[in-house]
Description:
By secondary structure, this protein is an alpha/beta fold. It contains 9 helices and 10 strands.
Amino acid sequence: xxxxxxxxxxxxxxxxxxxxxxxxxxxxxxxxxxxxxxxxxxxxxxxxxxxxxxxxxxxxxxxxxxxxxxxxxxxxxxxxxxxxxxxxxxxxxxxxxxxxxxxxxxxxxxxxxxxxxxxxxxxxxxxxxxxxxxxxxxxxxxxxxxxxxxxxxxxxxxxxxxxxxxxxxxxxxxxxxxxxxxxxxxxxxxxxxxxxxxxxxxxxxxxxxxxxxxxxxxxxxxxxxxxxxxxxxxxxxxxxxxxxxxx
Length: 247
């Protein structure tokens, strides 16, 4: 089977898992939105999950946190800023040559809980290029589904994986970096095998409102896999378009 066909099959299977988890969350009334479908679920209990994440030694030691801009992880970003951690999160769709918002807790002009909002961050935080960032101690991801092995399924856009890959290539994410996701218990498919490709980022730790799960064998890509990116995707992301596929 060629790579294109294999990726298509994996994508279909991922979408089936997403649909099943989204349906389960909706049926349980476990999200704050009208529906979980089509997004990283803004799950009920996200504040409690952020508080449980705060119990981790890796969290307490972290000084720089790279976090997704999703609503479900807003309490994590707010907690990080309130505790004096530097937070950066991506500009939507990475559509800028300076693709990250840098939230410096010492320079905030609004309270941490406000600055942590993606909408407010876009107004108050400077955009910075990758070379202006510090090494990352913790990466916080949103997920639709995740299992005990650390295999994570996102909403399907792929931006978190891209960010992870080029930050790894830049030397800002390394073996010391801890990758976590905060989710509702219904999003944790503990012993179920989940579909994944070589560019998918696995997680070291899953945090729910009720527990912390250490994953057994998370996969980490060592960098960008250019053959998994089509020309339109590359052209839409300035930091990738400026480089082009390695030759």
